[in-house]
Amino acid sequence: MGIVPWSTLMLERQEAKLERLRSRLASLSGVAVTSQTALEQPAAAVVRASGVAELVVIGSGRLGRLSVEVLGATTHQVVSHARCPVLVVPEGVDLPRYGSVVVGVDAEVHSAPAVEVAFAEASRRRVPLVAVHAWWLEHPGPFEDPHEWGSGEHPAAESERLAISEMLVGWSEKYPDVELSTWIRRGEPVPVLRAASRAAQLLVLGTRGRGGFAGLLLGGVSSRLLHHSPCPVLVVPSLPRPVLPTGDGNAWPDSPGEPHPSVTDP
After folding, report:
1. How much is the pLDDT for 160?
2. Structural fold of domain 54-236
3. Smallest Cα–Cα separation from 243: which of 233, 231, 255?
4. Over the stretch 124-154, which tens digit does the pLDDT of each residue have?
């Protein structure tokens, strides 16, 4: 999809460029490739296309430190409002061909769509799946044993492990071919996910969560994760989003809803 400032000359040039790209992609992939030039806001055009798509693929963009803080950045807007999963591909890095699939999880129902997609991707790629969970409590007080915090023996850590294990067991039964491991760490979610995905070929995230991943995709820190991830990031809507209105490419109609309708507990 080409998105250009309106002028007859610019439109003709963009359409010619887009047609060359379409022909090249079709010849390389052997699948049907169509193209469309949209005269509207870039993010709005891509979000509108997502209403009839199974997947949107978008580059992370060559943005500086300040630019990724801007809420209106195209990639962030598309991720926040797309009606289907969005694959954000990092620019300027060699895409990993090997490694596991990593998914950020918590013990709430909001994780279910991302977990299902992560299992399906790991199964399709025939690679292991690593479920990553971040939890946080303040540093131990003078009457607690600091060794328990560092070794993961603290009662809070055991509680987190149990909750995540119970949430994942059904999915492991549904995908018996996927080798599953869990990576549970005390810490902030973004650094934990970055560390876990360094050797991964794909990182899968939901758009809404509770606990350690609350609001993960709603701020500047998470934007930096999207724009500077060492591997592609697949963002899966955690809640159903309203059907896009017709005739208004600049609308962003999101509202709370029930868990994703295409996901059922295994």
Report:
1. 79
2. Rossmann fold (3.40.50)
3. 255
4. 999 999 999 887 765 555 555 555 555 555 6
